[in-house]
Every structure is written in structure tokens, then in C-alpha cells.
Amino acid sequence: MKALVLLFCLAQLWGCHSFPHGLGPVYRELTCDDPETEQAALVAVDYINSQLRQGYKHALNQIDKVKVSPRQPTGEWFDLEIDTLETTCHVLDPTPLANCSVRLLTEHAVEGDCNVRLLKQDGQFSVQAVRCKSSPDSAEDVRKVCLDCPLLAPLNDTRVVHAAEAALAAFNAQSNGAYYQLVEISRAQLVLLPVSVRVEFAVAATDCVAKEVIDPAKCNLLAEKQYGFCKATLTVKVGGEDVAVTCTLFQTQPVVLQPQPDGTKVGVPTIVAEPAVPSPPAASLPVAALVVGPVVVAAQQLPPPGHRAHYDLRHALTGVGSVESASGEAFFVDKTPRVVQPGIAASASPVVRPCPGRIRYFKI
């Protein structure tokens, strides 16, 4: 037993002399509101929005945690925990994020919670891994700020589906251009007084002319996708219903031919991530709007979406692969790094950092 204790002590002593102070990894301490931390967070948010295929763009609200660690042989890892808020811009909307309004608390806001790992190399950030989820504000909190505000309704509620179909039929009936099909029901609320349904939905142009459509099933989406986004209110009245709808049509998305393993090329719509720098005002974007209503229409039957009141980032965000870790540390393990300077022993107690950072809009 004494021999084992002696052997252990010798091993410990050898370890201390084998790694002299100043040769270990150097950790940098950043606050959550440090400009470099915020730059990394904005790159993360831009990346997240570029990967979304459903729902709405998100804006940075707060940085909860930041950890910077060295990466061998070069560069640094930035592990962030950030909170986001849903904006009023659909993911198909080309409006720059800087010009998108965050949805108000009274509109039943949705908050996102993301863990992001970025690599900083040669002064540039690149996202390596992302995990996100999102959830609406609680009904109790909405009632605290607005007693009569409608809450989010399930997207597959029959009243919601009917309202979207009726609004799209009204839009197509008044259109002099292409016939549009429903892409997704994005958001809905049931209003008690007057009895009505507010619905927002995305549409896409087909190869049919709206005024000439006889059988919508024979209409096909265009190769160069042209999307639009609509907001509508269906009001129930005695003997019928009124539908008011406004649709904004976006730019046509060009198709890029991508090579396949067999040598052929397949057309894929391009989706470009927004830069983190200020962009031109939304007014300069070439969009078209058409307001219709109120009119009485008959809706067609379309399959409803899943039973949910919003598009959770957990499912709406496309998958991102795992990331290497030079230190062998698991992704997003919550450890407080210590600052090590050459020739100075690190303190045994963790360094306290001023996190979380500032709230940019409001906290849910």
C-alpha cells in the first residue's frame, strides 16, 4: 500500500515539472456585452436565419453566456448561449433583418433559445454547430400586459385552415397574374369580438394564370420560385363571412444548377444569408402588394399542418453536423475557463464574468 502511495506522489510531482507555468492554453475572458462577443452572436443569428425554412426570422435579444477557448493549431472556439425573439418577417421575406420588427408582447411573442459554437480564424467567424428551440410567451404573461389580446391558435385548427384557404381564394380571384398556392400557414389567432380569425401564410406562384384556372391540381410551382406572404382576417357574420387579405410578393429566386454524382445538373433555388452589416432600407426592395376585401368567398380543402401554434426552431432549423474539439471537451459543456498568463499560476477560484448581457427588446 505504501508503495502505491509513493508511486502516486511521484507521478504527481513529475506532472507538475512536466508542464511549467505559461505553456498551457491561454483562455481569453470576454463579457457578454463585449463587441467581439456581440459580433459572434450576430453572425450566429444570421446563420440561424439562413437555415430556417419555416416560420419567421429571429433577432438577437440577449447573450446569456460566452466562453472562448483556444483551438489547435490555430484559431479560437466561441461557445455562446443566446436568446432571440421572433420578428414579423417571414423566412422567405428578403427584407434585411435590421429592418424587421420584433413581434410585440401584445401579439403573443415567441422566444428562441440557442447554443452556438463558432470558430474564429483569421479574424472571421464561422458557425460550426447549432442547437435551438423556441416557445411562445405564456398565456398568463400575455394577459398581464393585455387582457383582451388573442393568443396563438393551433395551425391545424379547422377555423384557421378555412380562413387561410378563403383568403388565398380571395387573393387569386382578384389577381391578374399567376395563380398562387398555399405553402404554409405561419401564424394564427382567434379573436372573440368580433368573432374572427387572423391568419398569416406563405404562398408560391404556379405556371397557371389566376383568371384562367379551372383545375388547381393541374397547376405546378414555377422552377424559379416566386414566393409571397399574406396577412388576412376572416370575420364571421350573419349569413356569411368577410375576408380581408393583403399579400406581398417577393423577388423571384433564381435557380442554380448544381452538379450531381452522375454528372448531371439539378436546379436548386438559391438562399442567401443576410450579412451582419447594415443593409438598404426595405422600401428599396422590389416587391408588390395587393389588398383585397372584404368579400365573401368559398374555400377549397387543403391538408392542415401539424398540431402546433408556432414553428419551433428545434424543428424548423435544418441540421448542423457535430464539431471537432481540440481539447476533447464535449460541445457546450458548461465550464468556467480560467485565464492563464505566462509565468503566473492560475487562481483556484473561477473568474466571475458579467453575464448575461443586456436585453435589447424585452424578456419573456
Automatic annotation (TrEMBL):
Subcellular localization, as worded in the UniProt entry: Secreted
Cystatin fetuin-A-type domain location: 27-135, 144-255
Signal peptide: 1-18
Keywords, sorted A to Z: Disulfide bond, Glycoprotein, Repeat, Secreted, Signal
Principal location class: secreted
Domain of life assignment: Eukaryota
Cited InterPro entries: Cystatin_dom, Cystatin_Fetuin_A, Cystatin_sf, Kininogen_Fetuin_HRG, Prot_inh_fetuin_CS
UniProt keyword Signal present: yes
Pfam (any one): Cystatin
Keyword Oxidoreductase set for record: no
Name of this protein: Alpha-2-HS-glycoprotein
Organism encoding this protein: Ceratotherium simum simum
